[in-house]
Each structure stands twice: as structure tokens, then as C-alpha cells.
Write a structure and sequence with these properties.
- The complex is a heterodimer.
- Chain A is an alpha/beta fold.
- In chain A, 38% of the residues lie in helices and 25% in strands.
- Chain A contains nine helices and ten strands.
- In chain A, strands 6-7-8-3-9-10 form a six-stranded mixed β-sheet, with helices on both faces. A four-stranded antiparallel β-sheet of chain A has the order 2-1-4-5, covered by helices on one side.
- Chain B is an all-alpha fold.
- Chain B is built from nine helices and no strands.
- Chain B starts with 5 loop residues before the first helix and ends in a 7-residue tail after the last helix.
- Classes of the chains: A alpha/beta, B mainly alpha.
- The interface between A and B is medium-sized, with 31 and 24 residues.
- The complex binds adenosine-5'-triphosphate and magnesium ion.
- The site of magnesium ion has 4 residues of chain A, from helix 1.
- Magnesium ion binds next to helix 1 of chain A.
């Protein structure tokens, strides 16, 4: 279980997150929607300690940590159960595809090289880029890079994977196949939080949709509830902008 | 007009040549310590704390604006006084080369910090974040992911620092160090400075291969790194 409680974050005098809380059950796929600048990325970054929150806490399993006061040791401990898939992939440019996937196993988790390699190869096979295992990231297409990014996350067997707009840097024709891969990750039963603008993905995969605006959770619920019959004005307004007219049936 | 004395040229050349080791000692020493100071100053300048940033940039502006000779004398006279007054240790017998290394480490620290800072910033921050997210500690993430890429960016500049140091270090003669130039001037004086043309020509032919070889060595190193990693590209 993943419990995000009362997260607050300001950049100077800009209040980006105003008390955001989310309860997420094991194996849930939570899709976060919201207009640009609503704080979605900041929320993911705060709960992965890439950004220090001004307040709030995180509970993962039976361990709780303050997002503001977490020690280096606690941060490392929590990150062992979390993985992040970035919008810009962020593959290690000085390492091959295989080394990218092995890094977290051998260096962080001290798994013997042979075993790490087997697991990494298996993960690359699973995401469909095994033929590029000795290539460097700059030799890959965006879609291939993001597959490696996903392999790098999945190979660690994390309890939670955070996806920040994993397909929005991709050429349109590659979006579908990467979304298919993310669906495949969801089927493995890993808890996922996915920030995306792909409404159809939310409709199909999400166990819950969260709509954020102006640093707060405006509304959350099943895809049916949020996408088809939202209650809040702000949600309706957002959906009417992003959904094609014929999909929006209220 | 007297004739050019090749025998004198040869004599100077042969007698000065062994002092390359002195020059190389302070070049390597200063670059090495300067590198560590540079890392420290770069960390201050990259820190999130305003006060530390200010200290870092103060260091850089101070040492960038002082001529090497001036600093050399400040250290030469000041360091023994400071050490004696604050630690009660008398530095009288200290080898002159120590002052040279201290001076140039401080000076190079300032330019190195700029090189290190810009090369660090040249590596996309997202890679560091990805590294800590797969469980690397911040230090390991820098060591294994950021540093190797920044190093490739910095290498040409490090080469220039070495060459700058060989040439600028010659100022060490002003505090009486017998390095290549210092020894040469001493030998020239023994001949009442009559053969100074032969002397300085000999010095030219000692300095030139030093910098030339160094330059080539760095070019080759760069090339080998680029070949090994020609496929890596900061993306
Ligand atoms: N490091 C930062 N420093 C200052 N302001 C920031 C920083 N990061 C984000 N912001 C601001 O915080 C607000 C929320 O940003 P955030 O990236 O979380 O939005 P988002 O919901 O992910 O938007 P998008 O859909 O465009 O990715 C924005 O106004 C942004 O300018
Ligand atoms: Mg974002």
C-alpha cells in the first residue's frame, strides 16, 4: 500500500502543491490527469525525493517517512522499492543498453554480475530491445530508449513505478507501442502512478483516475466516473478541451 | 659582432636538461592539487546555499585577478610567517618548490573550478536523477555516471592547463627556484651573461618539446576516449 499524505511544495512564492493526499492500494494503476503546470511532475518528484517537499509524508508497506525530513538513509531505503520512468528517458549516455539495465542491480543492490546480467537480458527481451543490448542510448530511437527506461525500472522489481509522461516526447507513431508496453507492466501487478495526457490509456488501464489542477486533487475515482461523468466544473472543462467531441458524452 | 657559439648552446642544453624533472614536479603537483581545490570550489559554486556560492565566486574572482608573480611573492613571504604565527612551525628549510606548488595550486584551483563546473553542468541532470532512482547513492551516481561524461568534456581544457602551467611556472625563478629557466639563468650568470642568446635558444629547445609532447599526448588521449565512446553522445 502506498499512502501519500498532505504533500506541500512551493517554489519561492509559487505554491505548486497545496496539501495533496492519495491512498493507493497494491497493484493499483493510478492515472493522474491535469492541465500543464498543475503540479503533476512536482508530485512525482516529491514522493521520489528528487524534490524536497515542504511538508507531507509517504507510507510504503509498513514504513512511513517524512518527505521534508527524510534522512539520506531513509531516502535510499524507500528508493529501493520505487522506480521512475522519465519523460526524457534519461538513459546513462556513457553506458550500453545492457549496462543501463544492470547498473541498479550490480551497483546499488550488489547482485553478482552474472545473475544481474541474466536478469537484465530477460528484462530487455521482455520489453523487446534485446537486439540493441550492446548499443549506446544515442543510437536508439525514442521508442527504444523508453523501452530501455522501462526495463531499467522493471528489472529492479520495485513495489511502485512512477511514470512521468512516458510517451509525450515520442514521435506520434511510436506512442502506441510504448503504451502497450506500459499496459504489459500493469498486468504484472506492480503498483503504478502514471502522469499522462493519453486519455484513452487512462480509460483502458487505470483502476483510478485523479484529476489535479492548481496544486490540489480536484476529483478522483474510477475512469468511468471521472472521464464519463465528472462532477467538478474544472474537470469537465479540462476534458472538453482534451477529448474529441464524440468521446465526451455527458 | 661575435659568432654564434654552438658549443655554448650545447653545453647549456645538456646542463639544463636534467632540471626538467624540477619543472615537471611542480607542474604535476600544482595541477593535481589545483584539481582537488577546483573540485571543492566547484562544489561551493554549485551548492544551493547562497553563502557558499558567494565564497566560491569570491575565490574565483580573487585568484583570477592576481598576477601569478604577485601571488608567488605573497605566498613566499606570507606562508612562513602565517604558519609560524599560527602553528609555531618554522618553515625556514622548506624547499622553494613547495611555495611554487602552493601558489599555482591556488591559482589553478580557480580556473579548474570553472572547467569542472561547466563540464558538470554539461551532463544532463536527468541522468543523475535516474541514477539515484535506481538506487545509487548521490556520490556513486556522480562517480559512475556524471564524472566520466564530464571528464570527456573537460579533457581539452585540462590539456591547456598543463601547458599554461609549464610556461607560467617559469616565473618560479623569481623566488630562486632552479627549474629549467632558473637553472639556465644561473648558468648564464656564471658566464657573465655573455652567451645569453645561446642560453635562451637552448631554453627554447627544451621548453618546446615539453609542451609539444604534452599537447600531442592530450590529443591522443582525447581521441582514444572519443573512439571508445564515439557512440556515446549526450542526448
Ligand atoms: N524547479 C522549479 N523551480 C521553480 N518552479 C518550478 C520548478 N519546477 C516546477 N515549477 C513550477 O511549478 C509548477 C508546476 O510544475 P509541474 O512541472 O509540476 O507541472 P505539471 O503538472 O507536471 O505540468 P506539465 O503537464 O506541463 O508537465 C509550474 O508552474 C512550474 O513552472
Ligand atoms: Mg510535468
Amino acid at each position: 500500500m502506498l499512502e501519500i499524505k498532505n504533500v506541500k511544495k512551493s517554489f519561492r512564492d509559487l505554491e505548486v502543491l497545496k496539501d495533496v493526499s492519495l491512498d493507493i492500494g497494491d497493484g493499483e494503476v493510478v492515472v493522474i490527469l491535469g492541465p500543464s503546470g498543475s503540479g503533476k511532475t512536482t508530485l512525482l518528484r516529491c514522493i521520489s525525493f528528487l524534490e524536497k517537499a515542504d511538508g507531507g509524508s509517504l507510507t510504503l508497506g509498513d514504513k512511513e517517512v517524512s518527505l521534508k525530513k527524510a534522512t539520506k538513509k531513509q531516502i535510499n531505503e524507500f528508493r529501493k522499492n520505487m522506480a521512475f520512468v522519465f519523460q526524457n528517458y534519461n538513459l546513462f549516455a556513457n553506458k550500453t543498453v545492457l549496462e543501463n539495465v544492470m547498473e541498479g542491480l550490480t551497483v546499488a543492490r550488489k547482485i553478482p554480475k552474472q545473475e544481474a546480467m541474466e536478469r537484465a537480458l530477460e528484462a530487455l527481451e521482455w520489453v523487446g530491445v534485446i537486439n540493441k543490448k550492446d548499443a549506446y542510448p544515442s543510437e536508439l530511437s525514442g521508442g527504444q530508449q523508453q523501452r530501455v527506461g522501462i526495463a531499467r525500472a522493471v528489472v529492479l522489481n520495485p513495489e511502485v513505478i512512477l511514470f512521468d509522461e512516458p510517451t509525450s516526447a515520442l514521435d506520434p507513431e511510436l506512442v502506441g507501442e510504448v503504451l502497450d508496453l506500459i499496459k504489459k507492466v500493469a498486468k504484472r501487478g506492480i503498483t503504478m502512478i502514471v502522469v499522462t495526457h493519453e486519455i484513452s490509456f487512462a480509460e483502458e488501464v487505470a483502476s483510478r483516475v485523479v484529476f489535479m489542477d492548481g496544486g490540489v486533487v480536484v476529483e478522483e475515482g474510477t475512469p468511468d466516473k471521472i472521464l464519463v461523468s465528472p462532477k467538478e466544473e474544472r474537470t469537465k472543462e479540462f476534458l472538453s478541451r482534451v477529448l474529441p467531441k464524440d468521446m465526451y458524452y455527458i | 659582432m661575435r659568432a654564434f657559439r654552438w658549443d655554448m648552446f650545447t653545453e647549456f642544453f645538456v646542463k639544463i636538461l636534467p632540471y626538467i624533472s624540477v619543472t615537471l614536479t611542480y607542474v604535476v603537483g600544482s595541477v593535481l592539487f589545483g584539481f582537488f581545490i577546483g573540485i571543492g570550489i566547484a562544489m561551493l559554486r554549485l551548492s544551493k546555499k547562497r553563502a557558499l556560492q558567494v565564497i566560491g565566486s569570491l575565490y574565483v574572482t580573487i585568484f583570477r585577478s592576481v598576477p601569478s608573480v604577485v601571488l608567488l611573492f605573497v605566498i613566499y613571504y606570507g606562508l612562513p610567517m602565517w604558519v609560524e604565527n599560527s602553528f609555531g612551525i618554522i618553515l625556514e628549510d622548506t624547499d622553494t618548490i613547495v611555495y611554487v606548488i602552493v601558489t599555482f595550486s591556488l591559482l589553478l584551483g580557480s580556473s579548474m573550478s570553472e572547467i569542472i563546473r561547466t563540464s558538470y553542468l554539461a551532463v544532463p541532470k536527468g541522468q543523475y536523477e535516474a541514477a539515484v532512482m535506481v538506487g545509487l547513492t548521490p556520490f556513486t551516481a556522480i562517480r559512475r555516471i556524471v564524472f566520466p561524461q564530464g571528464f570527456v568534456v573537460a579533457l581539452p581544457n585540462f590539456g591547456n592547463i598543463f601547458i599554461f602551467m609549464i610556461k607560467e611556472g617559469a616565473l618560479a625563478y623569481t623566488i630562486g627556484l632552479h627549474d629549467i629557466l632558473g637553472r639556465g639563468m644561473y648558468l648564464g650568470g656564471l658566464k657573465a651573461n655573455v652567451y645569453n642568446l645561446e642560453l635562451y635558444l637552448a631554453l627554447t629547445f627544451i621548453y618546446w618539446p615539453c609542451t609539444f609532447i604534452l599537447e600531442k599526448a592530450f590529443k591522443m588521449w582525447e581521441k582514444s576516449l572519443r573512439n571508445k565512446r564515439k557512440k556515446e553522445k549526450i542526448c
